[in-house]
Design a protein that fits this description.
Layout lengths: L13 E6 L12 H17 L4 E6 L1 H4 L4 H4 L8 E3 L8 H10 L3 E7 L1 H14 L3 E10 L3 H14 L2 E3 L1 H9 L5 H10 L1
Parallel strand pairs: 1-2, 1-4, 2-3, 4-5, 5-6
Length: about 190
């Protein structure tokens, strides 16, 4: 779907990409608690809605594994290790993404101005619609976070919030899935 095509995000053509939420990096991240909490909400919602989740880890030998709060939610646990900043630089990531046969990338994680931004730009270049969740993405500094957001939006990635994505994927109230997800947001 080209980014100029205005329509709601659909759970049938989306994949949640959780980028580099790792033990040695998270403590240094601006607004880390909000980013972590919203990433958890997104992961739990994606599982309820049967949306595939791809998790990456940037050089885990140096930055440590994914934080337990995230790792413990995803079964089976199969993170994709990478050393390149863009997730698309990983053959395993690109292969997994192609297997999912989805057109929309929903990005959360760290850091906005490095791995998230480079992944977003490569995703756009590869023909994906890219949605970056502003309240579930950050960097070590607020300035770098905001600069990453600006560059992604200027390139055609679409800024969204956690609640915006969750309710867009749900589409309606009154269902069992709605009840499960709304309890995560309250």
């Amino acid at each position: 779907m080209p980014t100029s095509d205005i329509r709601l995000i659909s759970n049938g053509d989306s994949v949640l990409v959780v980028v580099d939420m790792q033990e040695r990096l998270i403590p240094k991240i601006f607004n880390q608690h909000t980013v972590t909490s919203n990433a958890i909400t997104l992961i739990k919602s994606a599982e309820i809605l049967n949306i595939p989740i791809i998790v990456t880890e940037q050089y885990p030998k140096g930055l440590g594994p994914t934080i337990p709060e995230i790792k413990d939610l995803i079964v089976p646990w199969q993170p994709i290790e990478k050393i390149c900043f863009s997730c698309f630089g990983s053959i395993d990531f690109s292969r997994k993404l192609k297997e999912e046969k989805r057109d929309n990338l929903i990005l959360c994680g760290i850091e906005s101005h490095v791995c998230i931004m480079q992944t977003a730009l490569d995703g756009l270049k590869s023909g994906y619609s890219v949605f970056f969740i502003k309240d579930a993405i950050s960097s070590r500094t607020k300035n770098n976070r905001e600069t990453g957001f600006e560059r992604m939006a200027q390139a055609g990635a679409i800024p969204v919030s956690t609640e915006m994505v969750v309710f867009e994927l749900l589409r309606e109230a009154g269902t069992d899935k709605f009840k499960q997800i709304v309890s995560l947001i309250r």
